[in-house]
Design brief:
Layout lengths: L1 H12 L8 E7 L1 H4 L15 E8 L23 H7 L9 H11 L11 H15 L1 H7 L9 E3 H10 L6 E5 L5 E10 L15 E2 L4 E3 L4
Parallel strand pairs: 4-6, 5-7
Antiparallel strand pairs: 1-2, 1-5, 3-7, 4-5
Bound molecules: 2-acetamido-2-deoxy-beta-D-glucopyranose (NAG).
């Protein structure tokens, strides 16, 4: 009897593969990512670039560093040019491939219930980043990088919401005053549609009510 109970328990509590509730597409602004002490390359892109695509859960533990297939360049050759342009490493001394590999090892390997292989994972990020085209969304709302202008966080969020990409999570360099926009994170259902709101308690990390989006 005890053995039967044990077997039934084992059946119901067998650890399943790491699953995720939603996906976070993190976009970074190279200029502010590269503030000291970051050590960046020269000739940074003047556009939001992809930082990562993170499978996430509503509650901790957040998936990271799962066991899975290693990335090799030949798995993504068909999209390599786009990855170099849209998902570049900004760090001096780190190749683009090392950056992709780091992101794959930390996050991508935890998303195998959504993406069967690295090509699908990386392609998804490129497709969704282009579909949202946040630089354009903000530009259409007269929000663009500038040395002088200060934007209210609400205005930035509203522009993104009204374009149909949901309430994002913003991250800023808080040591600057006003805080400097560094990252915009969009949240997606695992079926690829944008969520109405990123399901985080804290939607503004380090950002004040106003922020700058500096050009240099
Ligand atoms: C995607 O999933 C969400 C949440 O389950 C659902 O509300 C939405 O209708 C789905 N969209 C599509 C296109 O399947």
């Amino acid at each position: 009897m005890a053995r039967l109970v044990f077997l039934i328990c084992l059946f119901f509590f067998l650890p399943t593969v790491m699953s995720c509730d939603f996906l976070v597409l993190a976009l970074q602004w190279p200029i502010t990512y590269c503030r000291p002490p970051s050590n960046c390359r020269t000739g940074l892109p003047q556009s939001l670039t992809i930082r990562g695509l993170w499978p996430s859960t509503k509650f901790p533990p957040y998936p990271a560093h799962c066991v899975g297939k290693d990335l090799s360049l030949n798995m993504v050759t068909s999209i390599e040019d786009r990855l170099h342009n849209e998902w570049p490493s900004l760090n001096s001394g780190q190749s683009d491939f090392s950056f992709w590999e780091m992101e794959w090892n930390k996050h991508g390997k935890c998303s195998t219930d959504v993406f069967p292989d690295p090509l699908t994972y990386f392609s998804f990020a490129l497709t969704k980043s282009r579909a949202a085209d946040i630089m354009r969304v903000l530009d259409l709302n007269a929000i663009k990088p500038s040395q002088r202008e200060i934007f209210s966080a609400v205005r930035i969020v509203s522009a993104i919401v009204n374009a149909g990409f949901g309430v994002p999570q913003l991250e800023c360099n808080y040591l600057a005053y006003p805080s400097e926009l560094r990252e915009i994170r969009l949240c997606l259902h695992t079926n690829g549609t944008f969520m109405q709101r990123c399901p985080y308690n804290n939607l503004k990390i380090g950002c004040g009510l106003t922020l700058s989006w500096p050009l240099q």
